[in-house]
TrEMBL record, chain A:
NCBIfam families: phosphate_pstC
Location of the protein in the cell: Cell membrane
Keywords per UniProt: Cell membrane, Membrane, Phosphate transport, Transmembrane, Transmembrane helix, Transport
Any one Gene Ontology cellular component term annotated for this protein: plasma membrane
Membrane-spanning parts: 21-48, 77-110, 122-144, 150-168, 175-194, 219-240, 247-265, 285-309
Molecular function as annotated in GO: phosphate transmembrane transporter activity
Family label: Belongs to the binding-protein-dependent transport system permease family. CysTW subfamily.
Protein name: Phosphate transport system permease protein
Function: Part of the binding-protein-dependent transport system for phosphate; probably responsible for the translocation of the substrate across the membrane.
Residue span, ABC transmembrane type-1 domain: 83-309
Source organism of this protein record: Thermobifida fusca TM51
Amino acid sequence: MTTTDLSTTGRAQRQRRRLGDVLFAAGAQGSGILILAILAGVAAFLILQSFDSLAANQANFLTSSEWDANTREEPSFGVAALAFGTVLAAAIALVLATPVAIGIALFIVFYAPRRIAAILGYLVDLLAAIPSVVYGLWGIGWLVVQLAPFYAWLETYFGWIPLFAGPVSTTGRTMLSAGIVLAVMILPIITAMTRDVFLQVPQSHREAALALGATRWEMIRMAVLPFGRPGIIGGAMLGLGRALGETMAVAMILSPSLVISWFLLQSGNQTIAAHIALQYPEATGYGVSALIAAGLVLFAITLAVNMVARFVVSRRKEFA
Amino acid sequence: MSATKLSAPEKTVPPRPLAPSLGAKPLPALFPPTLLAGVALVAAGLLYALGWWNPAVWAIVTAVGYMVLITAASALIENRRKAKDRLVTAIVYTCFGIAMVPLVSLLWTVLSKGLVRLDGYFLTVSMNGVTPSMDAGGAYHAILGTLLMTLMAALISVPIGLMTAIYLVEYGQGRLKRAITFFVDVMTGIPSIVAGLFVVALWILLFGPGKTNGAAGAISLSVLMIPVVVRSCEEMLRLVPNELREASYALGVPKWLTVVKVVLPTAIAGLTTGVMLALARVIGETAPLILTAGSSAVAINANLFEGQMMSLPVFIYSQVRMGGVINYERAWAGALTLIIIVMLLFLAARLVSHFFAPKTR
């Protein structure tokens, strides 16, 4: 008798509690699902709104480079040059930033005096706090002026390398300038990721290497870098994703043109994100829809890069 | 027996080096800094004499010269392995120096050029009726717009982000939890301009083409803010010790009350810090706002749901696009204002986490 009594009151209590619990749990789970829905919504709405112009497009969207979409009759536009510019700018940024970021991470974790290491790390994080529009302003108001003579020098002595062929842009508003600013912007991202992995290197591995008589560099090469490689790759890819989608710095610095050009010191090229920001205020006719289509391409590229990056990073966690 | 056998050779080892390569006399500790100073002086003198003086060139010549000399000296006096180690040390220090160049020059440029125009007038006057090259006008409308849109973005994203974090830490399991974790990470990587386009597409569907207002801007900002809030809140909730939850359950407190009354208050300092850092991240966003809130508003507009709304980042951008001297002055002043706001948020976040963090043993 007593046992049934206990169980019924228990059940009653549990049910009374459950209402609050159920609501709260549902709310929490609902928020999570809402996030997935937003992400799906981003893709769905972009696809939906780009149909309009893609159906009317006279040119091949993926292989054409022209952009004549601000009309109601026979628009013709394509993202070939834009996609090329996007990848080129991000590649320059990645090539410049990754080695420096690894160096900084090594400095903060293994070289800097213990007491000030945290502060120095904070200084690098500060780079991530600066808004991109300020980077753009700094780039066009200060950096390109400093870089212009350097470009002239580069062309004089290294002009035989096709990348640096002249005639050099006198304003310095070139692909290389945009790439340099992007490199500064992704530096803290790659550094943070790399630093985190370096900190996770087991103390015993490092001490074992040092105990065998290794110098600090040999310890890093043998114990730290092999362990940290997935983190470095993941961090670099996160930086790449950021550089691919960065808008303002490129929109403000680069003097654009819709051509596919390998000449980093001449004005020209354009990225998808900057093109959207520059064109949107003047877009009419199929213009908005065409820009949304371009944005869809950017979304697909960054999504792929980020997913691979997260996959690489999360795989490391499993092994660590 | 064995102890004495082992201890005997140990005593004889220390006085004599193990191997010639390890025992070679190292360079004195003061040698590298002295060499660096010497190289810097010589490089400066040389560049002056040749008439090529330029701070950047001087830094590069100094760094390369030091690397060559320290490696050579170490290779001659110590050994090749140590030489390599010293070379890498120099390279690693240089890497950090390279990162400081943009930071210092950016902050210095913004400060020196921004102070020209940043005053009470600039902060309290809008651009209404000001022609681009007129020596007047300020950023009040932009600051107001930034604060309003960021506030609304926070009101949208903090509840969603916090509840998702609670789900991930307290409730989630299995595939849904893994999917949410993964896609929140992926969502952090969405380009800001795509978030803007998403709201543009949504707005066209809901209200027809060409509608721009502050609410659209706020929603595009919250798309960018939600994943940041989730990540930081999740981390903070994980730090709450499980003993607290178990003690609460043992007293018969339902799970949701445990979360609300025990877990959240314990983590409140961290949560506040996380939200403030997320705010600092989105307050500088420009691209989505150009698309959603418009880039040509000049008058004060405090209504989020009607008419274009200017924001500080878009203000900077549109002034740069106009391209005149005074426009650039306004842009620099705007940039300084923006950086000050971001830094204040960072500082506040630090202070909150410093003073309100629960005392741990």
